[in-house]
TrEMBL record:
The chain crosses the membrane at residues 34-52. InterPro entries: DUF881. One of its GO terms (cellular component) is plasma membrane. This is Uncharacterized conserved protein YlxW, UPF0749 family. Belongs to the UPF0749 family. Residues 58-92 form a coiled coil. PANTHER family: UPF0749 PROTEIN RV1823, UPF0749 PROTEIN RV1825. Keywords: Coiled coil, Membrane, Transmembrane, Transmembrane helix. The keyword Kinase does not apply. The keyword Glycosyltransferase does not apply. It comes from the Bacteria.
Amino acid sequence: MRRPDESMSLLRNLTEGALEPEYRTTRAPRRTGWVTLVSIALVVSLLTYALIQTFATRDVQAAERAQLLEQIAEARERQSLVAQDLAALESEVGDLTSRFLPDEEGRRALAEAELLSGAVPVEGPGVVVVADDAPDATDSQGHVLDSDLNYLVNGLFEAGAEAVAVNGHRVTTLTPIRSAGAAITVDYVSLSAPYVVEAIGDPDLLPARFANTRAAAWWQYLRLNYGLTLELTPSDDDLTLPADPGMGLRYAEGG
């Protein structure tokens, strides 16, 4: 009697004899111990190298930072010394001016010119204006721009201010107010909001006069449309504004 699967014998033989006898008896090669050790050593070496490079980079960055801080300290020290020399020279110029301008009218005219030009500090009553970005500012439309600050300063002068300073920096005819990236520079010094504008003048008249200027209308537009804030209040005490360091004596000729 034939087997039921006898007809499948040829297929079974092909399937069972697909591999050569050598393949049936050969054992899979095993990884030797020294190969494993080499692999582990290689991984450890790579990790060690990565750690060394990381710490070396940190050391270099720390050294560079320390060097920069040292340079900044030296620059500030030099700036302080130069400021002292400048103050001494300005005092000397004042003494020479008094000596060679004995005429009272001439000294008065010089003092007035120095006051108006911003060459000397000034003290007196006035108003304080605080200009700030919108509380929820997300783009340039919600921030105070250099043009907005220019409008404000010019409006205060138009209203009768005798002297103006922004964040402690005196504004004169030679003081640039410009944009520098995200900051505003006043006399090439970067400032950030809020901007405190001090104006010396009659505190009873300045607010009303300023309200009638184009600057006030512009800032009202900014407040209504972009949320910028502007607060003008009379100063309780006298304001003291510094001199513009760029307005010192540059040229003199003896007679």
